[in-house]
Amino acid sequence: MEFEFLADRPDALDLVSHWYYHEWGRANPNGSPAAIARKLSHSMNRDMVPLVVLAIDRNVVVGSVELKYREMAIYPDMIHWLGGLYVTLDYRGRGIASQLVERVVDLAGDLGIGRLYLQTERLDGGIYAGLGWKPCKQVCNKGIDILVMEIDVGE
Ligand SMILES: CC(C)(COP(=O)(O)OP(=O)(O)OC[C@H]1O[C@@H](n2cnc3c(N)ncnc32)[C@H](O)[C@@H]1OP(=O)(O)O)[C@@H](O)C(=O)NCCC(=O)NCCS
Predict the structure, then answer these.
(1) 97, 99, 113, 95: which is closest to 154 by C-alpha?
(2) From the alpha carbon of 119, which atom of ligand 1 is closest?
(3) Which of 17, 105, 121, 129 could disulfide-pair with 37, CB 3.0 to 4.6 Å?
(4) Domain edges within the chain
C-alpha cells in the first residue's frame, strides 16, 4: 500500500468526490459529486490544511482521508479535524483505514497541530478507539447521535 496526496493524484478527484457523495452527500438536496469536487479542489495541498491523503494499491486508489478545518460549525473553537475516512468495499478489513488515520495524525504533528478532532456515528469509537482517540462529546447532530473524539498529536 502506498500513500499519496490528492495534490499529486488530481486524476482521483472525481472518484473521491463520488465516494463522498454516495456515502454522505445524498441527503443534501443541493449536493452533487461536482459540488463535492469543487470543495475538495481546495484540498490539493501537501504542507497545509486542508489536504487529502489517498491509499493506493498497485496504482488503484482504494481509500482516502481528509485533514480539514472545523468540520462541525457548532464547535468553532475545535479547529483541526480528521474527516472523509473512506475505503472501498473490496479493501475493507485489511487495516487500510487505520493506516490512513495514523498518516493524518503524523502529518498533523509535522504541521505543528496540537489536537485533532473527528466525529463518528460509532458511539463506541469504532476504529478510532484502538488508535488512541478519546471520546470528547456526544451530541445529536442533524438528527443523528454522534460521538466527537479527540487526540493530542505527538502523545
Ligand atoms: C470505516 C472504514 C473507513 C474502515 O475501513 P477499513 O480499511 O476496513 O478499516 P480497518 O481495516 O483499518 O479497521 C476496521 C475497523 O473499522 C471499524 N469500523 C467500521 N465502520 C466504522 C465506522 N463507520 N466508524 C468507525 N469505525 C468503523 C470496524 O469495526 C473495524 O474495527 P475492529 O477491527 O475493531 O473490528 C470503512 O468501513 C468505510 O469506508 N466505511 C464507509 C465510510 C465510513 O463510515 N467512514 C467512517 C466515518 S467516521
Answers:
(1) 113
(2) 48
(3) 17
(4) 2-152
* Ligand 1, atom nearest to 98 Cα: 12
The SS3 call for residue 109 is helix
Regarding the domain with residue range 2-152, which homologous superfamily does it belong to in the CATH classification?
A: Gcn5-related N-acetyltransferase (GNAT) (3.40.630.30)
- Ligand 1: which atom is nearest the Cα of residue 87? 39
Q: What is the pLDDT along the chain (155 residues), one digit of tens a residue?
A: 999 999 999 999 999 999 999 999 887 888 999 999 999 999 999 999 999 999 999 999 999 999 999 999 999 999 999 999 999 999 999 999 999 999 999 999 999 999 999 999 999 999 999 999 999 999 998 889 999 999 999 77
How many angstroms is it from 112 CA to the middle of ligand 1? 27
CA of 5 to the centre of ligand 1 (A): 21
